[in-house]
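$ run holo --ligand "protoporphyrin IX containing FE" --emit tokens
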Amino acid sequence: MLKSIPARFFATSAVFALIGMIWGIQMSISHNHTLSPAHAHLNLIGFVIMAVYGVYYALTPAAGASKAASIHYWLTVAAVVVMTPGIALAITENGEAPAAIGSILALLSMGMFLRVILRHGVGALHPQTTP
Ligand code: HEM
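-- output --
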């Protein structure tokens, strides 16, 4: 199920968006916005950035077929899963280590994105033949 890398990025981004939106509605109803930075990072890294990565891999099949793409996917999922509760823990003064680790994972994920772009270019053609 969902073997293609773009489908995995898109489906996971939709799952994170659904959780983030339900969380946003819960914050609105409760009038408690304390954890809004955690909600924001879940939506922005989990939904927006993951969907951007999905668009890139859909445009660039050679990159999507690479081993790096799968590592990139799991690195990004790990960043969201560690960073989101990490920010909530930091805000409630229950420790900053998970937020710090999640931030580093997010940074590595973006570095991996740059590496994949430099290796495969953008689009179906090889970078050297792309106009
Ligand atoms: C059903 C959908 C959503 C609801 C009900 C919702 C609700 C909220 C609420 C109540 C806040 C706190 C506002 C405040 O304290 O001033 C907030 C903040 C925020 N939300 Fe959402 N949100 C939703 C979806 C999204 C999405 C899809 C994104 C990004 C793609 C997003 C990004 C943000 C950002 C950046 C903040 C500001 C965080 C901060 O200032 O610390 N939200 N949202």
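-- notes --
Residues 5-129 form one domain.
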